[in-house]
Amino acid sequence: MSRLPKRGSAGITRRGFLIAMTAVGVSFGFPRHLMAAMDPASPDGKVLPSEGDIYEPSLWYSIDTAGKIKVNIMRSEMGQHVGTAIARILADELEASWDDIEIIHVDSDPRWGYMVTGGSWSISQSWPVYRQAGAAGRTALIEAAAKKWGIAAKDCKASNGKIISTKGELSYGELVTMGLTRQFTEEELKTLPLKPNADLKLVGQQVTSLDIANKTNGKTIFGIDAKVDGMVYANPILPPTRYGSKVVKFDDSAAKAVKGYQQTIVLDDASGSVPGWLMVIASSFNAAQKASKLVKVTWDAGKTANVSEADIIAHGQKLLGDQTKGSILDTGNADTEPAFASAKSTIAEEYITSTVLHAQMEPLNALVFKNQDGIWEVHSGCQWQSLTLPVLATALGEKEANIVIRSYMLGGGFGRRLNGDYTIPAALTSKALGGKPVKMVMMRPQDMLFDSARSASVQQLKMAFDDKKAVTAMEHHATAGWPTQVLAPGFMPKGTNGEPYDPFSIAGADHWYTVGAQKVRAVSNDLAIATFRPGWLRSVGPGWTGWAVESFMDEAAHHAGKDPLQFRLDMLIAEGRNAGSTPVAEGGAARQAAVLKKAAEMIGWGTPQAKDTALGIASTFGQERDMPTWVSCAVQVHVDKSNGIVNVQKLYIAIDAGIIVDPNGAEAQCQGAALWGLSMALYEGTELLNGQYKDSNFDTYTPLRLGQTPDVKIEFIPSKMPPSGLGEPAVTPVAPAIANAIYQAVGVRLRKIPMKPSDVKSALTKA
Q1: Burial of 675 (0-12, 13-18, 19+ CB in 10 A)
Q2: Backbone torsions φ then ψ of 264, nearest 5 degrees
Q3: What phi, psi does 170 have (nearest 5°)?
Q4: Rounded Cα gap, residues 513 and 473, in angstroms
Q5: What b/e string do you get for 64-102 counting C-beta neighbours within 10 Å, with b at 16 or more?
Q6: What kind and span of H or E run contains 622?
Q7: Are the beta carbons of 89 and 127 closer than 8 angstroms?
Q8: Each residue's pLDDT tens digit, 21-80
Q9: Helix, strand or coil for residue 75?
């Protein structure tokens, strides 16, 4: 297996996380102990046995004597139908019948390579791997049939689960019954001929999602449903600060009156994930909940007990004011000083985003125990098994080889379950009880309090113009709490000044506009990191860098006296570093210009609007420059000046994501992403107050409601390019498009999200 890039090595982006997966060596041995895996289409999620012998052309699937094909999926399922999408890539290349396909969400065994589900990577990174795997099976089956018939392989073809020639036809099951042993080296896999994209039959077509039935009838098994005989329940009592709090004493005398209450323990966590936690243990969930309310705890609070959101914002502004701080990204030419010194005019603005919670529907949970073979089993939905396992090993004082994370469906992830810290308290409690099964389910307030939120951010942008109002230079300075610095520092590349940076917290600032000299500086907000644990949230860096870039581009267009659409198009020049690169980014800025034009066409850009109503537009890419999904958003917005309420009437998205593998899933993902972007733009956001998040439930944390949903349209640009990601990109242009429309409608510019009615009214008062 290829090694992951070394910490701090140059040029790492978050695609580097997947190197181990895309270059994984072929190691055979389809797991017979399938209790650690899950088939989301079967009763209770249990993997159905194969019939007779099986043939494994590669690590990623097996074929049995009945012709049934089990496809191994290393990605986690959280509503995006990732298994169906990946399986159809393989089935198409294999020339299998869709009726014969089963998907298996596998456990955390190292054989699967580096396991992570996030970053909109799943389809793009799986595309070459599963196509090669499918080609291997097709090649082996054709060779076996040709040998059986005594003819040349070129005189045979694969179709719909059979090999066909003038000699007749043989099903895949029949060929497996004959006994197949053909295996392929990694080098051979890379040289196998793939079907022309034009000949793909399942990719891009409507097929039945293999896990849709159980999702529809309520039989899907989520982590919260996990149970084993003899388990006890543990309810956490959380400390007053995320870090630094210590338990001085606790009194559980009142809790002892609760039937089923057993004991309360203080966790001793070598991993640093849950300092200052107590776990209340009982024989039932209700007893643990009831008893925990009766336990009295005295803490020595951590140093951040008095830190609030305003402190983090002010600290960020101070950090950006020190030009020696941070990392400078490689943008080709970051020497902006001469251009600003000779500029005929300049503009500069600051943009702020509030703290945002994940607030996924399934609260955090984990069931952990040590089985009779001495293996620690962790039953929980997880987005990043390869990051969580080392933390579990540290906490338990065990080798990673003695820990397995079993597959469950996720009732919402959105990046929260990339950070597996929620498995630690259950694991430590089980260890304290000698390996006894312990199940922890957080209530909503606990879940929100323990969230790895998207950090508040401060961004300062400036632009230089010549005497014709053409752009000659641009700078983007950004600071926030960096999740990668806390959770995966080995994946932080170094900037041109030798300083490491979090690519998750600055991607998008290195945009595709040609602006002359371009300086991008990323600065870590150490106060944010000390106060809470920053996390990756759906759309990560581009969710807030895109807010600043596209709001600022609109302001720049008005400064230059140009139409905001044309101003952008004039700078989307596919030359030099903005020409793009193969395989995914080919076309570069020209493809971003195409989606921008398409979104403008969809909304009717330039058409007259009613009073206090206007159109807004923005264009971004997700997630990074080496795997961009080009996306533009056009909105129609009405602003009620009397109360400041912003009504988004139309929200139209144009996307170029290369080949669309799963049309239904793609549209659903983009609809959800766009509405998530709308939610964060107008409604969704919290703030830190005395070291903790202010909001603890949906009575005050108010994401987008159904009645606030506008007319949403998604259009994909037809493409023959390899697929890129779709889970996150449509989030990113929504907020700036709305802000730009508000300005066009009523003449006020909002530079902080969420844009609440009170913010609109205040801006109108000052205008």
Answers
A1: buried
A2: -120, 135
A3: -130, 130
A4: 11
A5: bbbbbbbbbbbbbbbbbbbbbbbbbbbbbbbbbbbebbb
A6: strand 613-622
A7: yes
A8: 333 322 222 333 445 789 999 878 888 889 999 999 999 999 999 999 999 999 999 999
A9: coil
Task: Give the integer Cα–Cα distance in Å for 533 and 394.
Answer: 18
Per-residue tokens: 98: 């869709």
Judged by DSSP in three states, 444 sits in helix
Residue appearing with tokens 């090649």:
139
With a CB cutoff of 8 Å and minimum separation 6, the contacts of 634 are 599, 600, 602, 603, 605, 615, 616, 617, 650, 652, 654, 737
Q: Which of 217, 143, 224, 223 is nearest to 180 (CA)?
A: 143
Residue 406, SS3 per DSSP: strand
Q: Which H, E and C letters describe 136-184, residue by residue?
A: HHHHHHHHHHHHHHCCCHHHCEEECCEEEECCEEEEHHHHHHHCCCCCC
**Is 44 within 8 Å of 36 (Cβ atoms)?**
no
Write down the pTM of the prediction.
0.94
* Residue 655: burial class (beta carbons within 10 Å; 0-12, 13-18, 19+): buried
Q: Are 442 and 425 in contact (CB under 8 A)?
A: no
- Asked whether 209 and 665 are in contact (CB, 8 A), the reply is yes
Compute how many other C-beta atoms are within 10 angstroms of the C-beta atom of residue 3. Answer: 8
Q: What is the 3-state secondary structure (H, E, C) of 86-110?
A: HHHHHHHHHCCCHHHEEEEECCCCH
Query: In which element (H, E) is residue 349 found?
Result: strand 345-353
CA–CA separation, 754 and 681 (whole Å): 5
Instruction: Give pLDDT < 70 ranges for the chain.
Output: 1-35
* pLDDT digits 0-9 by tens, 414-465: 999 999 999 999 999 999 999 999 999 999 999 999 999 999 999 999 999 9
Segment holding 542, helix H or strand E: helix 542-560
pLDDT in the model for residue 35:
56
User: What does the alpha-carbon distance between residue 561 and residue 545 come to, in Å, rounded to a whole number?
Assistant: 24
Cβ atoms 571, 513 nearer than 8 A: yes
User: In whole angstroms, what is the distance from residue 223 CA to residue 243 CA?
Assistant: 27
Kind plus residue range of the DSSP H or E element containing 403: strand 403-406
Q: Alpha-carbon distance 692 to 347, whole Å?
A: 36
Q: Which two tokens stand for residue 629?
A: 């999904």
Query: How far, in Å, CA of 28 to CA of 213, rounded?
Result: 31
* CA-to-CA separations, 270 to 246, 432, 451, 570, in angstroms, rounded: 14, 13, 20, 55
| Centroid of chain to Cα 281 | 33
The three-state (H, E, C) secondary structure of 722-766, written as one string: CCCCCCCHHHCCHHHHHHHHHHHHHCCCCCEECCCHHHHHHHHHH
Cβ 391 vs Cβ 411: under 8 Å: no
Between CA 152 and CA 140 the distance in angstroms is 13
d(CA 138, CA 147): 14
Tell me what percent of the chain is helix, strand and coil, each rounded to the nearest 5.
35, 20, 45
As given in the structure block, the two tokens for residue 199 are: 């000949």
Beta bridge partners of 377: 369, 404
Distance in angstroms (rounded) separating the CA atoms of residues 127 and 131: 6
Q: State how far the alpha carbon of 192 is from the alpha carbons of 21, 136, 140, 224, in Å.
A: 19, 7, 11, 43
